[in-house]
Amino acid sequence: MKEVCYEKLEEWIRNTIDSKPGKSFDVFQEMQQLSLRIICKAAFEYDMSDEEATAYVIENDTYLYEVACKQRMHVWRKWCKSILPSVRRAYQASENTASFARRVLASYREKVKSGVESSEDTLIKLLENSGAFETEAEKIAEITGLISGGFHTTGNSIGFTLLELAKNPKIIEDYRDNIKGTSNVYDWAKSDCIQRIVREGLRMHPVTSHIWRVLDKDIHTKSTGMSTKKASSHIVIPKGSIIVVCFPSVHRSSEHYNHPDTFDPSRWINPSKEAMDAFMPFALGRRTCIGQRLAYAELHTVIAKLAAEYNWEVEAEGSVCVGLAISRKGTRLIARKSCGQLD
User: What is the Cα–Cα distance from 83 to 77, expressed in whole angstroms?
Assistant: First the structure.
């Protein structure tokens, strides 16, 4: 998994940073596409071309904007495919992402026939051999959902962390001091310092804004302090209730973290129990994120190498975009090769 992350990262560095030294790039757009290529190779044994990556991001965004944003506000749009061109375009985009998933599955089946599939238990292998799908369409939908659900979130998390590092060069200096004497990106990725940087990036900028859960039992919780004197000392949330957990509110609460709006990886040196309990970027419990192991592998490998070998400048911070994931639009960074020695 980490080998794939490193392979795709090296390709991206050659094609984007080293081939155009000193030129800025849209960090969120680039990290989303990098994450997409990593997911396709590591989980689905598919080498995605640049053209496929660009097209997939556009088609995926087009469809999600329609169903997750427009149709949430205007439910009637789902019945207007025949009269609204934008709705027709969105559903065509959905079919285009499904067509890509069919190519991924067909490619894997060809590898199986040729005996060149991965020896590891990749996600595509588990899906293909699972008896849980009654139809081919269900399997294609699952592949599409897993790809679409993974690249935005992880790519955005990498983008936010690189932006924070560009604004805080002293943190990069401390990280480089921490890894001096080592020249292996795998060792850098396992260092305590990069673990803290990634954790702090996820705390300030979680992979998604919120989740819904339906309670399967009554929950007895402490009073929030907002109740009146006549109210009971605890709150009961009844079974069957739909609750929404807002990750930015929890992760930036002053009840759990000092100076919560400050990017400070050192807060994770001997953190309090309250700080650890409040940290849940991939949710908790049985329905925690299925792709978090791959996400962490990407985060640690990509950030470890880029922070070790490049100095970062902010050309434009852009603006925050909130949809299914939290991102930024128009954020441009400049990466320059570091002259310092780590050996």
Answer: 10
